[in-house]
Amino acid sequence: MPFNKRRQSSMDFSDGKIPSLEQHPDIVLNANQPGHLQRNKTERRRLQGLQRTNTTTSGPVAPYVPKTMMEKYNHWMINEGGRRMFFFIFLFLHCLVIAFGFMNYQLKDNSVTARATFGITFPIARTAALVLHVDVALILLPVCRNFISILRKTPLNSFIPFDKNITFHKAVAWSIVVFSFIHIAAHMVNFTELAMVDPDAKTTGQKIVAFLAANFATGPGATGWIMTAALGVMVWYAMEKRRRARFEWFWYSHHLFIVFFINWQLHGMFCMIQPDRPPYCSFNTIGVFWRYWLVGGVIWIYERILREVRSRHRTYISKVIQHPSNVMEIQIKKEKTTTQAGQYIFLCCPEISYFQWHPFTLTSAPEEDYISVHIRVAGDFTSEFAKAVGCDFDRKKGEKDEAGGKIVGTAANPPINRVLPRVMVDGPFGSASEDFLNYETVLLVGAGIGVTPFASILKSIWYRMNNFNSSKPTRLSKVYFTWVIRDFGSAEWFHSLLHAIEEQDTQNRIEINIYLTAKIKDGDMHNIIVQDVGAEKDAITNLRAPTHFGRPNWDRVFSSIAEKHPETDVGVFFCGPAVLSKQLHVQCNKWSSPKGTKFFFGKVGRHARERGEVTAGMFTLACGRSTKLEGSELEARLGIFREVHWNAARRNVNVMENECIGKAV
What we know:
alpha/beta, Rossmann fold, Elongation Factor Tu (Ef-tu), domain 3, 4-stranded antiparallel β-sheet, 21 helices, elongated, metal-binding, FAD-bd_FR_type, transmembrane helix, Fe_red_NAD-bd_6
C-alpha cells in the first residue's frame, strides 16, 4: 500500500478559550467563522476523518436534543446503571444489618440484664460490632488482585465495578472507621455505667480508677485501644496527600492490619457482657471474628503465597535507559509471564527493601518479548532504585550529556562489569483498559502525563491492526487518540511513539489529536506561525497531526463520533485528573442512545497515578527482534517500524550506546 505522506490528525474541536493561529497569513479573517475552521490551508490538508468531515464538508453538527426523564434513565443504565446498583446494594446491606441487628439486641430475651444495666448503648455497641464483622468479611477481597483479575473475565464484570476495587476497599474501610467510633463511644458509656455500679468504688476517685481499669486493665479494653491505635495510624498515612508524599510510610503502616485483626480476634474472646443464660460465650469462647475473616482472609493468604512463588521465577533487568525529565526506563525479562495491554505490575527491589512492592503501569505491548516500565524519579523508593540501576539524575546541569539521555545498563556481554540489582515482579494484573479490544471504535483520552497507560495500548493496537499477531485478532477498526496537555515540552518522551505509529499507520486507523492548553507567548506564537506556513508537519510536535490550541469541545467530539459511527459501541478510556474524568463520564451518558451509538466509559492507570511517581516515560517499542513474531515479511515490516521509532527516540533523547554498560544477575 502506498505510504500516505498526508496522513493527518482529526477532531479539532477546540473550545476557543485559547487563541489559535489567528495571525496566520493563510487564515481567512472572519469574526463569525468558528475557531476550529480558522486554520491555514496546508494544515487543513493534514486534517482527516472526523475533523475533515466536520470542518470542511458537513457543516455544523445537529444540536443536542434534550431527553425525557425515561430517556435519561435508559442512557444512564447503559454506562453505569449496573455499577451504581452494586454500591446501592452495598449500602442497602448495611442498612439491613443495622436494622435487624438493633432489633435483635433490643428485643432479645437473653439480654435483659445487659439492657437493664447499660440501657440503649448496649444494642448500639453490639449492632456496630455486627456491622464491623460484615465489613471485615469484605475488606480484603478488593485487594486480592489475582482474584479480581479472574472475576473481571466473568459476566459479573458487567454490573460489579471490579475496576473500582480500591474505591470499594476505601468505602469498606471508612465504614470500619465510622462504626468503630460508634462502638467505642457506646462502650465508653458502658464502662462508665460499670464504674458507677462497682461495689468497691465508693468515692469519685475510686470510680475514675475503676473506669480507667475497665479501659486499660481488662482484656476487652486493652485490645480495643490497641485496635484503635492501629486503625488510627493506618488511616492517618492512607490520606491522599500523605500517601502521595510518603508512599513507603503508607505501605508499612498499612501492615498494621495484622495487629488490628489479631487483637480483634482476642477482643471478642473475653466475653465481657454475658447473656442471661448459657451458652455465655459464642462458639466455645473463641469468638466469632475468625468466621467472618475467613471469607476474604483465605483468598488473601493464597495470594500472598502466590506472590512469593511468582517472585521466585527467573527475572532480571535486561536494559536500563535514562531519559530526560528524571525518567528511567526499565526493561525486564521474566519467565512464565503473559501480559495484556494496559495491565500493571508490582515491583520489588530487595536491594532497597524486601517488603516494599510498588505498582507500575506496563508500557510494553504483549507482542514484545520483554516487559517494561517507565519511572519518574520523584520519591524515596524511585530515587534509591535509580541509583541502584546506575542512573544519575543528580549531576549538575553543566555535567549532563550533550545528548540528554543514555543507556546505563544492558544484560548483553558488558565491557564494564556493572551488576544490575535483582528485582521481583508480581503480576501482571488487569485494569479497565484491557476492555478496549471489545469494541470496534475506541476513544483514548490522556491528560498530561496520563498518557502513560496508553503506551502499551497504542503499541498493541498497532500490532493487531497490522495483523502482526494473527493468533490475536481484533475487532478494532478505528482509534481516536486525544492528548490534552498543558506543557508539551515536559512530555517530549512520548513523541517517538506517536511519530512511529503515524509513520507506519498507512491505513489511517489511528487518529492522533493533541490539544495544547497553556497560554502561548507572543514570541512563541510568532515562531509557530512562521514555521507552520506551508509545512507538512506540525511546528511543535513534528507530527503530521496538527496541534490544536485550547481544550477540546467534548460535545462536538462525541456528537461527531456518534454521527460517523451510528449504532456502534464505542469504548472511551481515560487517564488523568478527576475533573476531566467526570466531564467525559457525563458526555458518555449524554450522547449514548439505547438504539444508536453507545459510549462506555472506563478509567485506566489509577494504580500508577495514586503514588504520583510513575506516570512518565519515553517509550521504546522494540530495540531487538521480538521472539513472539514470525515470518520474514512480518519481520521486515516490524524492522521498518522499529527503525522509525528508534530514530525518533534518538532525536528526542539521543540515546548513547557507548556509555556505561552493565549486566544483570
